[in-house]
UniProtKB/TrEMBL annotation:
The lineage of its organism: Bacteria, Pseudomonadati, Bacteroidota, Bacteroidia, Bacteroidales. Gene3D superfamilies: Galactose-binding domain-like, Glycosidases. This is Cellulase (Glycosyl hydrolase family 5). One of its GO terms (molecular function) is beta-glucosidase activity. Residues 476-580 form the Carbohydrate binding module family domain. GO terms for biological process: glucan catabolic process.
Length: 587
């Protein structure tokens, strides 16, 4: 990616980074992260990493731009954009994308929310040229703009006392047959001595540059290798028994790092997307972390048992370096499992388009037209339309223009420690006023406490059956199903796919005790439904919803007594067949 950007913006990156670095007061670090037996520690003692990955920034995976099934990797995305707007404007887009994607405000926000570490997924071509473009064979051209970008992030991490862990996400040539994660088109790392040499040299260069940086947490030397060394039909290395080339590359990289840096820990990753460690052990360095990735399986002891055994057998720390892409229920339970077992974690991912992330990148009409064209569902956009669409997307990539998912961070931090709920907003019902609560703004909290839904997560790896959590995949990441709504008086979303015995809870503050009327807006999907309320534990009668499938209708619950102070209102669904968009409380 972005050779043109690299040369065009080297000077800008240099000046920008120098301004950032010299404008920040020195931070008193707490010592290098290092291993101490099975613990990761600094000078103050044990450190449990609670991190986030910056996926999609310098390495775009198609699904993060809602291009699954359209583009195979970042190179393909870039080619498609260039076909629409030309190479010069494409370079302009990628420059804006990189410039906007991670700024000081992003790192400040991550620190505020509770993250103490960041995993930086690096594309090698920000730092060096592909072997086929090197002016001299078997030599390495170093691209300062990539290093300066890393310097900038490091300076912001220092200011917030957050550790930055360098992750080679896309290695020279590509590290596996999953082309999207490494931006590979024809995997050549494992059958190219030149690419292996360049990978080793890149890590030596990085270590040489950052050897004295205490806020560099460590070196995650190869993300998710997935390759069948013994059997070419074992595309992703799931059945691999020896992993000899992978181990040898790790040994070579570690040796190169230790030639210049004896302080930072080195992270290794198994084959088959990080989890197949056959043939990798025993360890060859005394400052090494064993990582693993975890997706779409049960959150029980058995799911991490082999890694706990590795930790015990080889006396080295574990780090769950990538997980996510699931519901809040799954996330909370996974982190509870990790922290109970003293395993640090890093979530995936910070920003993307669509569902289950910290910050959602909004779309725009012109980009939607681009997507439709690429999917064969629309006409080719004009050059002006396409340029507007991608540049608006880059503008929406700024943290101030993304959509913060408060339920997501609440699940990662607060819900791990407590079953207590909290209001989605601080609702206050005053005297002689009404209060509108959008149905999708039910309380923050775990399933069974803030809401109850029968399908709360995706356990497909364990069960063979895909789960959904929120089937509508919009607005929130809880188990409750939410979809866009045509109720003009709501926030544009409604609860749908309601099943018997499910419920949602809303907590409000009331200024003065008294009776009120609660109006619930519903629309039928498949006949009339039934519901009742419990208000501060007191159950109302059953109510039948409208059977109209065309209009939003109001169900009135009269003479509901609310006390002064905190009140909880639960809407219980006796059966489904309808949607609910909002609740209005009138004094």
């Amino acid at each position: 990616m972005i050779k043109n950007i690299i040369f065009k913006y080297t000077r800008w990156c240099l000046l920008f980074s120098m301004c950032i670095i010299f404008s920040i007061s020195p931070i008193q670090a707490k010592g290098f992260l290092r291993t101490d037996g099975t613990k990761i520690v600094n000078d103050n003692g044990e450190v449990l990493l609670r991190g986030i990955g910056l996926g999609g920034w310098v390495l775009q995976e198609p699904y993060m731009l809602q291009l699954s099934g359209v583009a195979k990797n970042q190179t393909d995305i870039r080619r498609r954009i260039s076909d629409l707007i030309g190479e010069e404007k494409t370079s302009e887009f990628y420059a804006a994308w990189i410039r906007n994607g991670v700024q000081k405000a992003d790192i400040d926000s991550l620190a505020k929310w509770g993250f103490n570490s960041i995993r930086l997924p690096m594309h090698y071509n920000l730092y060096t040229l592909p072997i086929e473009k090197e002016p001299k064979k078997n030599e390495n051209t170093w691209l300062e703009s990539g290093f300066f970008l890393t310097d900038s992030i490091l300076s912001w991490c220092k200011a917030n006392e957050i550790y930055l862990i360098l992750d080679l996400h896309a290695a020279p040539g590509g590290q596996g047959n999953d082309l999207a994660i490494s931006d590979a088109s024809d995997v050549k790392l494992w059958n190219s001595a030149q690419n292996k040499t360049k990978t080793v040299a890149l890590w030596r260069k990085l270590a040489e540059r950052y050897k004295d940086e205490e806020w560099i947490g460590g070196y995650d030397i190869l993300n998710e290798p997935n390759w069948g060394f013994q059997d070419s039909e074992d595309m992703n290395g799931n059945k691999e028994q020896l992993n000899a080339p992978l181990r040898q590359l790790y040994v070579d990289i570690t040796k190169a790092i230790r030639e210049v840096d004896q302080k930072h820990f080195v992270v290794i990753s198994g084959n088959a997307w990080g989890n197949n460690y056959n043939g990798i052990f025993p360890l060859w360095d005394d400052n090494m972390v064993i990582s693993f990735h975890k997706y779409w399986n049960h959150n029980d002891d058995q799911s991490i048992a082999k890694f706990l055994e590795y930790r015990k057998q080889y006396n080295a720390p574990l780090w769950m370096s990538e997980s996510g892409e699931n519901s809040n229920t799954w996330h909370t339970n996974a982190i509870k499992l990790f922290e109970y077992n003293d395993i640090g974690w890093c979530w995936w991912t910070y920003k993307k388009m669509g569902f289950n992330c910290v910050m959602e990148i909004p779309t725009n009409p012109e980009y939607e037209k681009i997507k439709a064209y690429w999917k064969g569902e629309g006409t080719r956009p004009s050059e002006d339309e396409a340029y507007k669409g991608v540049m608006q997307l880059a503008n929406y990539y700024k943290v101030e223009n993304t959509l913060f998912k408060r339920d997501f961070t609440d699940a990662l931090f607060r819900q791990v420690k407590t079953t207590a709920t909290k209001p989605f907003y601080n609702y206050l019902l005053k005297e002689r006023t009404s209060l509108v609560i959008n149905a999708s703004d039910f309380d923050l909290g775990r399933n069974g406490y803030a809401y109850f839904d029968k399908d709360t997560a995706d356990y497909r790896v364990s069960t063979g059956v895909k789960g959904y959590g929120n089937k509508g995949r919009v607005y929130r990441n809880d188990g409750v199903d939410i979809m866009p709504s045509d109720d003009a008086l709501s926030n544009g979303y409604c609860i749908f796919s309601i099943e018997p015995d499910e419920w949602v809870q809303y907590t409000i503050s009331v200024r003065k005790q008294g009776n009120c009327k609660i109006n619930i807006s519903t629309k039928a999907v498949d006949g009339a439904g039934m519901l009742y309320l419990t208000v501060n534990g007191r159950k109302t009668q059953l109510f039948k919803t409208s059977d109209s499938t065309t209009d939003w209708n109001v169900l009135e619950v009269k003479n509901v007594n609310l006390k002064k102070g905190i009140n909880t209102i639960k809407v219980h669904f006796v059966n489904g067949g309808f949607k609910m968009s909002k609740i209005e409380i009138k004094r």
